[in-house]
Amino acid sequence: MTSLDRLAMYTEMVRIRQYETRILQEYHGDKTPAWDIGAGLIPGEMHLSAGQEPAAVGVCAHLKKGDAITAPHRPHHFALAHGVDMNAMTAEIYGRTTGLCKGKGGHMHLFDPENHFSCSGIIAQGYPVACGQALAMKRKGTDNVTVAVAGEGAANQGAFHESLNLAAVWNLPVIFVIEDNDWAISVPREASTANTSNADRAAGYGIPGVRVEDNDVEAVFEAAGAAVDRARSGEGPSLIEVHTLRLLGHFEGDAQAYRPDLETVDERDPIPRYAASLMEAGELTEAQADDIKAAADAEVDAAIQFAVDSPIPTPEDALQHVFA
Amino acid sequence: MTTTENPTRRITTAKAMAEAIGLEMQADPNVFVMGEDVGAYGGIFGSTTDLFAEFGADRVIDTPISETGFIGAGIGAAVEGLRPVVELMFVDFYGVCMDQISNHMAKIHYESGGAVKVPMVLMAATGGGYSDAAQHSQCLWGTFAHLPGMKVVVPSNPYDAKGLMASAIQDDNPVIYLFHKGAQGLVWMEKNPRSIADVPEEAFTVPIGEAAIAREGSDVSIVTLSLSVQHSLDVAEQLEGEGISVEVVDLRSLVPLDRQTVLESVAKTGKLLVVDEDYKSFGLSGEIAAVVAETDPTMLTKPVSRLAVPDVPIPYARTLEYAILPTREKIAAAVKDLMA
Ligand SMILES: Cc1ncc(C[n+]2csc(CCOP(=O)(O)OP(=O)(O)O)c2C)c(N)n1
């Protein structure tokens, strides 16, 4: 890992954070005073990934054109880190015709075939699809890989276990990524999962697994590098569990009354921590950090403007696209 | 101040459901609740509000995200004589657990020649209208009703929600209890005032299998259920001012289906509009039309009219979603078409 790698990862994390910070503002901006989830320029559920950037950035740093990702209901960080166009993604979140899915999908259902990116709002159901994409890559003789992402809660769903076995027995180029943010909505990990590490579960399926304990992008980068190399060279699947942090509620509007760790959340934010460590190492200056943030904000402003200026679909559009 | 014998107060549909479950839990130690976020959170749609504080983690159990596992466990517990109330958070998640529901919960009694009972309630949130898109906005009651062996209950208001929940828990059969998010009276969603209403504090039941005449009328029968009852009542009030008398039949359950009440209403008005937020083809609206056609199509003075989701997944953007939902405007237009 070079200094350039580190700076690039920092920049990408800031880009994602600035994006979601702005989406958060815009989402809430026009829902008050009578808070109504269906109202406003961005209607519907909103699951933000703030705090989980290290997982996406550390993994996606190793991906190249043709590699695929299946993401869950909390997809923004992986989408942006994988190169999904910010304008088209934002327009989709705003339900516009210029959106990735022409306004049909929304924030939980982003589809970008060019980047082989998709997500699903049904827990763990991206795992089997990832196996199929990996199977296709293998049969086509490419060295592309698929990354299957979900939360620690999703790892108790049957599809997760079926997929691990499929990937192992078919020796598929899949990297299973589990973002353990301690919570599945209001249910803490220890109440849902007897096993403390999904790396152990991977071992049960004959797959190498690593648990990255401290939400550190460099540690994720190291683990993902090994896993992606393995997959590209035909050695089969791997699993990486990242112990990460949900900075915000499960969805916007979640009061988090169930959560005892709220007070310490801000001090565990991985981005300021990484900035401090880069500065200490002399790899980042305050001025550079300001520039990085300003550049991100400018890109985000432009994406929001693009979305807001884009046309709203017509009622007739609702009947299109049921069949090819 | 006066005290009445049967005190009522205005509560939401969500609260009414939770209250019914709580009363049944007090009355019968075999009743317990499980599902995702039903504990401290109180259910994502409020259907288990305050139960955790009253009954504790032994009887209000937060589950892993393992619907096949915990719905199947509900079946097993029911077979052994407990009375589980299991929540599937959104009905859309049926896909990951339908084998337990259809091949096990719904078939065990028949397969066993009546030897084994499955006294279980499976409740789930349905419906759209708030841009939750294709995987979180479906109704799907027609899908469950199509598969034999489970009762399907669909309340439209707080009173029925409480009474039908009590009946569902006391029933010796598996009951699917589908509540519409938009009729729960949630603070974070647009709501019809009809989602908050007078409900007696005491325990009571509403029998499963009896439709209600939610409003009497003489010109057109709207046969409907769930949130669409609330919309239809709004439309009926509005059209009264235009001289059109609309009768609203609230089915309240699909299985069993109260054919008699439907037929009596249609016999009276001669005109039938079925309003259904589920998909149009192969579902409830066709079934209701068939009930009339099989009995006596000559009771109709106009062909049956059906307003339902036009066989597309539920889209995200508001304009798209409202283009396919049975809105008040579309209900009113359909009634006027029948009157033309
Ligand atoms: C099959 C299924 N069950 C339940 C849900 C509802 N649900 C959405 S997100 C979520 C929690 C997911 O937890 P986790 O996998 O840890 O991811 P996180 O939200 O923490 O990122 C649940 C239960 C769903 N979408 N799909």
Detailed description of the structure:
The complex is a heterodimer of chains A (324) and B (340). In chain A, the strands form two sheets. Chain A has a six-stranded parallel β-sheet, sandwiched between helices. The longest helix of chain A has 27 residues. Chain A has 324 residues and is α/β, with parallel strands linked by helices. Chain A has a single domain, classed as 3-Layer(aba) Sandwich (Rossmann fold), CATH 3.40.50.970. In chain A, 52% of the residues are buried. Chain A is built from eleven helices and eight strands. In chain B, strand 6, helix 7 and strand 7 form a beta-alpha-beta unit. Chain B is globular and about 60 Å long. Chain B folds into two domains: 190 residues, Rossmann fold (3-Layer(aba) Sandwich); 128 residues, Rossmann fold (3-Layer(aba) Sandwich), CATH 3.40.50. With 340 residues, chain B is α/β, with parallel strands linked by helices. In chain B, helix 8 packs across helix 12. In chain B, the strands form three sheets. In chain B, strands 3-2-4-5-7-6-12 form a seven-stranded mixed β-sheet, with helices on both faces. Chain B has a five-stranded mixed β-sheet with strand order 9-11-10-13-14, sandwiched between helices. The longest helix of chain B is centred in the first third of the chain and has 15 residues. The model of chain B has no long low-confidence stretch (mean pLDDT 97). Chain B has twelve helices and 14 strands.
Q: What's the topology here?
A:
The complex is a heterodimer of chains A (324) and B (340).
Chain A: H1 3-29, H2 53-60, E1 68-71, H3 76-81, H4 86-93, E2 117-119, H5 126-139, E3 146-151, H6 158-169, E4 174-180, E5 183-184, E6 187-188, H7 189-192, H8 198-204, E7 209-212, H9 217-232, E8 238-243, H10 270-280, H11 286-309
Parallel strand pairs in A: 1-2, 1-3, 3-4, 4-8, 7-8
Antiparallel strand pairs in A: 5-6
Chain B: E1 8-12, H1 13-27, E2 31-35, H2 51-55, E3 60-62, H3 67-79, E4 83-90, H4 98-105, H5 108-111, E5 121-126, H6 141-146, E6 151-153, H7 158-170, E7 175-180, E8 196-200, E9 212-215, E10 220-224, H8 227-240, E11 246-250, E12 253-255, H9 259-269, E13 272-279, H10 284-295, E14 305-309, H11 318-324, H12 328-339
Parallel strand pairs in B: 2-3, 2-4, 4-5, 5-7, 6-7, 10-11, 10-13, 13-14
Antiparallel strand pairs in B: 1-8, 6-12, 9-11
The structure holds thiamine diphosphate (TPP).
Thiamine diphosphate (TPP) sits between chains A (73-74, 121-123, 150-154, 179, 181, 183-185, 246, 250) and B (36, 65, 67, 89, 93, 96).
